[in-house]
Design goal:
Elements lengths: L2 E6 L4 H10 L5 E7 L8 H4 L24 E4 L6 H5 L7 E4 L9 H8 L8 E2 L13 H4 L4 E3 L3 H15 L8 E7 L22 E2 L9 H9 L8 E7 L6 E8 L6 H12 L5 E3 L17 E8 L4 E8 L3 H16 L10
Parallel strand pairs: 1-2, 1-3, 3-4, 4-6, 5-6, 7-9, 11-12
Antiparallel strand pairs: 7-10, 8-9, 10-13, 12-13
Helix pairs in contact: 1-9, 6-7
Amino acid sequence: MTYKVGIVGASGYVGGELMRLIASHKDLELVTITANSNVGESVAVFHPDLDKYKNMKFVKTSRENLEGLDVIFLALPHTKSAEVAAWLPEDVLVLDCGADFRLESSEEFEKFYGTKHAGTWVYGMPELLISIEDKLRAKLVGAKRVAVPGCNATAITLAYAPLLAAGLIESDDLVATLSVGTSGAGRNSEANKDSSPAIDSAYAYQVGGVHRHIPEVIQNLQRVSPNKVTLSFTPVLVPMFRGILAVNTAKLVSGVSSSDIRAAFEKSYGSEVHIELLPEGSFPDTGNVSLTNKVQIGFKIDEANNRIVVISAIDNLVKGTAGAALQSMNLGLGLPENTGIDY
């Protein structure tokens, strides 16, 4: 069966990445692409590398233009998806690449996003531990409404969750510093203008516990931690287009060894196609995961401070957004999870 697909907000970086993946997915036909401020423009103007769709035109985001589709991806700015989602029939599989439906707490959503909470959808991270033994994957099978995770949240969550689940780290002192490519800020952000300092320098942003992915990560990790999770997270914009390199540290429980850490990761991710635990002494870099749906993880114990350092790397546009969306879509449609994103 071929599923008819639409992308809302398709002129942005996430929309382009979704198109790149859809182009090689044997079960999908891209039918509709919308972009309100660029109606009438062709794909080639914004995504010149997408030869398959170069002559397609962006249309207005409207209820009428989204009729007759089987799958719809919402690639809109945060807080803009809920209105469009309300138009869509319940039997259509809808995947929101924004943050509108990720959080379970209305209070946290309104605190970090400054607008009314629209509700909570199934969270689109199949590998996420929801107990010591179980993962979120089962809840995505047959799901019709999916909240795709945030890119930073993916890099941090997957680094900490197995260690919390195994009781190897303290939950109240998690510190993550992420080097983030400029595409994470979006096509229209200052970071992607020719005059941006991000072209040739690095700088921290949303410093001091205000980044919107913090409550998302805490929500993820609290599923497997019996104790309260706290996170200090600082993102740093660096002069590369795509990728996230996350340096995640935590205090170790007394007596934990390097072999205990490796065993926890292998237990959680040993069978996961898209997560690679590197050999001892090896650490990931963003070049090795670029244009893939892969997460690379490496770690080392800081003996002097009794802390674990877990380094994770992802492509923020693929595993951080579009690839994760297709993983969840495949599960929702009953297709093999890796269809269109396998290696």
